[in-house]
Amino acid sequence: MPSINANEVFTIWISKSPTDLILNCWKSWIEKGYHLTLWVDDEFGKTWKLPAKLCSRVSIRHLRCLGIVSFDYKQHNLLHFIDLWRFIILNKYGGTWLDSDMFLIQRIPTDKIIISSEFTLKAGAFKSKVDRKPNIGCLRFPPGHPFVHAVVEKMTPTTSSDENDNINQTS
């Protein structure tokens, strides 16, 4: 399988301008020596621009490169589609995904495959019986990995009706 550039991370930012919290998270990645590939929708450049202090370590890619041409933010659950898009990008290009609200205090391990985990609450309304649970805030896979491919297949709408209800794609 192709190797992954361990000094590159990617994320998605859609619609409105990122908050100071998000910008500080991205800055923490850059300060750890990473180059950020930022996948954006067509609102980038129209309603917001990347701050100049981040520009030298950020590459902009448009989601339309993946055949994603529009999304109705008012009618659909954006988080579901960001989950789908992250796996589409991982399947096609491989690499390291970070949720935009992840602040790095150190570099990410160099493992070829990463599925992050988080500690769970042991008391209260959201208590859990397990110490950790997997999450998708930090993922690393080579392109075309069978697990990622299976996730994309499972999450992708299977009928034109599903597709029209969820996302407008080019063929």
Give me the count of strands: 8
Low-pLDDT stretches: 160-171
| Largest pleated sheet | 3 strands, parallel
The proportion of strand residues reads 15-25%
Please, how many helices? 5
Overall mean pLDDT stands at: 80
Q: How do the strands of the widest beta sheet line up side by side?
A: 1-2-3
Q: Give the N-terminus to C-terminus distance in angstroms.
A: 27 Å
Helix content: 25-40%
Helix-and-strand structural type: alpha/beta
Give the C-alpha Rg: 17 Å
Q: How do the SSEs run, as a string of H and E?
A: EHEHEEHEEEHHE
Gross morphology is: globular
Description:
The chain is an alpha/beta fold and 171 residues long. The chain contains five helices and eight strands. The strands form three sheets. It has a three-stranded parallel β-sheet with strand order 1-2-3, with helices on both faces. Strands 5-7-6 form a three-stranded antiparallel β-sheet, with helices on one face. A two-stranded antiparallel sheet has the order 4-8. Helix 2 links the parallel strand 2 and strand 3 (58-62). Helix 3 (78-93) packs antiparallel against helix 4. The radius of gyration is 17 Å and the shape is globular.
Describe the secondary structure blueprint for this structure:
Layout: E1 8-13, H1 20-31, E2 35-40, H2 52-55, E3 58-62, E4 68-70, H3 78-93, E5 95-98, E6 114-119, E7 132-141, H4 146-155, H5 160-166, E8 168-169
Parallel strand pairs: 1-2, 2-3
Antiparallel strand pairs: 4-8, 5-7, 6-7
Helix pairs in contact: 3-4
